[in-house]
Design a protein that fits this description.
This protein has 346 residues and is of the alpha/beta class. It is built from 13 helices and eight strands. The protein folds into three domains: 37 residues; 234 residues, Rossmann fold, CATH 3.40.50; 66 residues, no CATH class.
């Protein structure tokens, strides 16, 4: 009995050790594959430039093949506290640009990853000047082909990119991803779209619209943050710096600037966009650019606002594992390839 018990124990220990070894092997293999999946065919250089007194830290990502000079895509962020690579989210498209012979220039927003300042202190005109400072900096680079410089902008950048393109001769093309036209209309669309997606009752929708209307009234009257909090009580969900940011920018509209754009534009629109009314955006881009600038419109029926596949975005687990093991597959089919082909044709 003792001998048999000992043998069973040894067999159990052997099986347990094998399972541990197998798990370690799988873990190491997964880590190696994740590292491979997140390795990009790019040569990244840390850079810094000045926008007046403001220092901006960023990245210049260049193709690994050839010696340049390369065309340049200048990235203009959407809303939020973003660093130069958007925590790696931009790298698949940077790689797509590199394969078309283009470098990418991007930078941290003020206050992000050690860059001084606070991005919530900016107006859209401040962001325009920032992008123009980036383009001016690029002129000092012998590895940049200044006849092939363009802008990529997403979401909130829809109020920045058209103005830069209209008044900066260096800009030879624009890639506009999920841009809005009018700040207030976009905000109302977003509110109603999110409520519908949440299957909100009509009573809740009516309450939220009343709160939104009261907030708009206070913004247009120039109310302080304290007055906003006093008026809305517990429903006042904007912190002070966000309130100041909205007060600076609520009146922006891209129409006048779009009407002055004369360079080729690639407009990319998502089929599941709850942030931006893509029907209005397409109508206005066609109306304002028609006959004056070459416009290419691409629709991605399976994409959310960020151009991530909607089926992936709906699952945190799918988003997590795709970002680790197949980051290029986060994006809607065609999104990266369409940009590469657009750039190759410039």
């Amino acid at each position: 009995m003792k001998l048999g018990s000992t043998m069973r124990r040894h067999r159990g220990l052997t099986i347990g050790a094998a399972i541990v070894a197998l798990l370690l092997l799988v873990g190491v293999g997964a880590a190696v594959y994740a590292d491979y999946a997140n390795t990009y065919d790019l040569d990244e250089e840390r850079i810094a430039f000045q926008d007046g007194a403001q220092r901006l830290d960023g990245v210049l990502a260049k193709p690994t093949r050839g010696h340049g000079p390369y065309g340049l895509v200048v990235l203009v962020h959407g809303d939020g506290a973003m660093n130069a690579t958007n925590d790696g989210f931009y790298r698949p498209q940077m790689e797509a640009y590199a394969r078309a012979g283009y470098a990418t220039l991007s930078w941290n927003k003020p206050g992000v990853d050690g860059t001084p300042g606070n991005w919530l202190d900016q107006s859209m005109d401040d962001r325009v000047r920032e992008a123009e400072a980036a383009i001016a900096w690029s002129r000092s680079r012998p590895d940049v082909d200044h006849a092939r410089v363009g802008l990529w902008g997403a979401s909130q950048a829809g109020w920045v990119v058209p103005k830069v393109a209209a008044r900066t001769p260096d800009v030879r093309f624009v890639i506009a991803v999920s841009p809005a036209i009018n700040w207030l209309r976009q905000g109302r669309y977003n509110l109603l779209a999110e409520l519908r997606a949440d299957h909100a009752s009509q009573a809740r929708i009516d309450d939220e619209v009343r709160r939104s209307d009261r907030t708009r009234q206070l913004i247009q009257e120039g109310a302080t943050h304290e007055q906003y909090r006093a008026a809305l009580g517990d429903a006042a969900d904007m912190p002070a710096d966000r309130w100041a940011f909205v007060r600076k920018n609520f009146a922006v509209d891209a129409s006048a600037d779009l009407a002055r754009v004369r360079v080729p534009v690639l407009l990319m629109l998502a089929g599941h966009d709850v942030n931006v009314d893509v029907a209005e955006t397409e109508t206005e881009y066609r109306r304002l650019l028609g006959g004056r600038a070459e416009l290419t419109v691409r629709h991605y029926p399976g994409a959310a606002h960020s151009m991530v596949r909607k089926d992936i975005e709906d699952s945190r687990l799918d988003t997590y594992f795709t970002a680790i093991f197949a980051p290029r597959d986060l994006f809607a089919p065609g999104y990266l390839g369409d940009q590469r082909r657009f750039l190759a044709g410039r």
